[in-house]
């Protein structure tokens, strides 16, 4: 019985974490205002100080044409790095800690909910 309760509890926790990880794209659009000075998304998105972010989820690092990436990011790209939700969540926490010598000057998003919401928003811009 004790084992059953532990398994049931772990399953419930897994479902609740998965639900939270989905984020809210509408809230993510609001949080993305912090990113707009350097990044763009949407049909008319162009590179700015940072690359446009359409289709970032599942995209190989350093692959936006016409953008000059940092040496640190290009080294990661050479290893076959692809942006997925987990990597983006980690990067957005503290970009300079995640990838030392990145060109991204943004300090990061402290709140996990903000990161989840931004990822949900970015997923809507393939």
UniProtKB/TrEMBL annotation:
Keywords: Electron transport, Heme, Iron, Metal-binding, Signal, Transport. It comes from the Bacteria. The keyword Electron transport applies. Residues 1-21 form the signal peptide. InterPro entries: Cyt_c-like_dom, Cyt_c-like_dom_sf, Cyt_c_1A/1B. The keyword DNA repair does not apply. Residues 23-126 form the Cytochrome c domain. SUPFAM superfamilies: Cytochrome c. Pfam families: Cytochrom_C. Coiled coil: none annotated. PANTHER family: CYTOCHROME C (PTHR11961). This is Cytochrome c family protein.
């Amino acid at each position: 019985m004790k084992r059953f309760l532990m398994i049931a509890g772990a399953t419930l926790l897994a479902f609740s974490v998965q639900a939270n990880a989905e984020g809210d794209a509408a809230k993510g659009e609001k949080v993305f205002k912090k990113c707009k000075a350097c990044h763009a998304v949407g049909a008319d998105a162009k590179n700015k100080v940072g690359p446009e972010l359409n289709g970032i989820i599942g995209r190989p690092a350093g692959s936006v044409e016409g953008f000059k990436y940092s040496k640190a990011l290009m080294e990661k790209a050479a290893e076959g790095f692809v942006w997925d939700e987990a990597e983006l969540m980690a990067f957005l926490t503290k970009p300079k800690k995640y990838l030392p010598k990145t060109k991204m000057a943004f300090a990061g998003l402290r709140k996990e909910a903000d990161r989840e919401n931004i990822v949900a928003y970015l997923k809507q811009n393939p």
